[in-house]
Design a protein that fits this description.
8 helices; 2 domains; 250 residues; binds beta-D-glucopyranose; Nucleotidyltransferase, domain 5; globular; alpha/beta
Length: 250
């Protein structure tokens, strides 16, 4: 493989996905492999699964991994939808030890944000861009002229007395059996709140539901332009690989 590749791993609540990424194209260079997230998703159990993905791919170079939590200098500071044992864990170190790779870890939505800014829906967009991923929780990435402000955690804004993601994530839609119309109302309320706070130039909406963006994005009445994410399932893997490469080639 050329030097413009890195291995990307996307650690999520249900699956852990990995592939070698072509960093020039912003695309996968090998087929994505998905293994189930172990339950409980403790650091040791997850590290084992990541090592399996790396061994299966025969990868030995730079590795970027997404994690669904606040990541400060490689250390997890929160764990909203994963095993609480991660809080305070040096994720960089745990994964470096299990894979023997040079590892960079970042928040999952932040990874998607840098990938969309370089290769996807926010490419070439100046000003303030906010990417929001709707899944088990709501992840956020804040970009200013294409540069990331990490760990914004806008899914946990308090809205109408609730942690916003408990009402407007796609998990809330599934758990409460909401129609797209009912759920879009909640998403609209949430997006209006975020736009009041940041006056963004663009919202990019991602996560599993962005595959069905035509069913709900047109229902939203907000002032800010809104685009569905383009890299869909691969945004996290691509962004993680980009982050690893940029860190280790500085
Ligand atoms: C977590 C974030 C994460 C988001 C999406 C939230 O519950 O706090 O760190 O980005 O879920 O996975």
């Amino acid at each position: 493989m050329s030097t413009s590749t890195a291995f990307g791993v996307d650690i999520g609540g249900s699956g852990i996905k990995g592939a070698i990424v072509d960093l020039e194209k912003g695309d996968l260079a090998t087929e994505r492999v998905k293994l189930l997230t172990p339950s409980p998703s403790t650091p040791a159990a997850v590290a084992k699964v990541v090592a399996r993905l790396v061994t299966q791919a025969g990868w030995t170079g730079e590795l970027g991994a997404t994690f669904p939590a606040v990541i400060n200098h490689g250390v997890a500071k929160s764990a909203a939808n994963v095993d609480k044992g991660w809080i305070g864990t040096d994720v960089d170190k745990v994964l470096s030890d299990s894979t023997q790779c040079a590892v960079t870890v970042l928040n999952d939505a932040d990874a998607a944000g840098i990938a969309e800014a370089r290769f996807g829906a926010a490419r070439g967009v100046d000003g303030v861009v906010i990417l929001l991923t709707f899944g088990t929780g709501i992840g956020s990435a804040l970009l200013i002229d294409g540069r990331l402000v990490p760990n914004t955690e806008l899914g946990h804004l308090e809205l109408d007395g609730h942690d916003a993601e408990t009402k407007a994530s796609s998990a809330a839609k599934d758990n409460e059996d909401l129609s797209y119309k009912q759920w879009a109302k909640r998403v609209q309320r949430y997006l209006r709140h975020v736009e009041n706070l940041f006056t963004p130039d663009l919202f990019v909406v991602g996560g599993g539901v962005s595959k069905h963006a035509d069913k709900w994005v047109p229902l939203l009445d907000i002032s800010t332009p809104i685009k569905p994410a383009q890299l869909l399932n691969n945004a996290g893997i691509v962004g993680a690989a980009m982050a690893a490469h940029e860190k280790f080639t500085e």
